[in-house]
Amino acid sequence: MGSSLITKKRIAKSLKQLMKQKEFEHISITEIMKYAQMRRQSFYTYFIDNDDLLEWIFETELKEQVSDNLAYISSEQLIEQLCFFFSDNHYFYKKLFALDRQNRFRQYFDSYCETVIDKYLTDHANFEIDDTKREIFKRYHATAISGIFHQILREKTTDRTALKVLAKTVTTCLAGSLFAIKK
Amino acid sequence: MGSSLITKKRIAKSLKQLMKQKEFEHISITEIMKYAQMRRQSFYTYFIDNDDLLEWIFETELKEQVSDNLAYISSEQLIEQLCFFFSDNHYFYKKLFALDRQNRFRQYFDSYCETVIDKYLTDHANFEIDDTKREIFKRYHATAISGIFHQILREKTTDRTALKVLAKTVTTCLAGSLFAIKK
Known about the structure:
The structure is a homodimer of 183-residue chains.
Chain A (H helix, E strand, L loop, with lengths): L1 H20 L7 H7 L7 H4 L3 H16 L9 H14 L1 H9 L5 H21 L6 H25 L4 H23 L1
Helix pairs in contact in A: 1-2, 1-4, 5-7, 5-8, 5-9, 6-8, 7-8, 8-9
Keywords (chains A, B): DNA-binding, Kinase, Transferase
InterPro entries (chains A, B): Homeodomain-like_sf (IPR009057), HTH-type_Tx_Regulator (IPR050624), HTH_TetR (IPR001647), TetR_C_Firmicutes (IPR039532), Tscrpt_reg_DhaS (IPR012738)
Organism (chains A, B): Pseudolactococcus carnosus
């Protein structure tokens, strides 16, 4: 399992590198494996096809960025880190969402954004909020941060200072809203 | 011009009524005009085709609901009124967004949501906010309220009390965020 993950990541890295230069639809398995310096046939030990690989990268990266971090960093750090992550990987995620005909990735992504807001509420809401308001708060801000991440992808913002201001303004909006809900 | 608007609205009402029963793609101009009790040929005096009519309804209604109200009601009232409006017209807008292959309607809609947040800022921000933060605030909350309106369409919420709680929670989030940005 350990070595399988390492190999999968090697293949994934190869696809991500190739996507910097060309469109996903024009990338063949032969190319991916050549770039990874591996035998073409080995691809099928790990993935069914290109789409399967794309999906695996998406799920694995979001899991690493969001789920695996939940217990270790504050929600403010998580939001800033996600801004940096999407900025660094904008070429990949922008293309991925453009391919997303059935809004499958988008829905998956939005559910991760809800997880981020859930964490924010767990970190900070040391008081009772009624369930309806909590649900509205969660969806309201999850949609908003999803929009912010998509904006980072569109605008290809890479300036770290600008991204920090963005993340800080977002968490300020969140903090203010939570404080107002509390009253 | 006055009578032209009345006739256009009559034709529009006819399409909207028919869309309660069947899909847009299956509605013919003959049907629309029969329902409106008008001659089929008159349709072309006002609209090019079904799509043109659909677009006209969308633009005209949003203009009436948002732009025309900007000077007369508070942003809180505007948000509540929009919640009621989308709830009352969910059958129409839900189908319209489902037809929206190039996200044309969605983009137009989001720009109206930005207008609502702009009004909120004009109504309440009696202090200086730097341009970057103002822009982030605007996009953040515009995306969030757009998400809330789309949720109303999806869930077909019609309970007025629930919609009032929704609108109130949204404006509380907005107020809190603005207060926090101010500090």
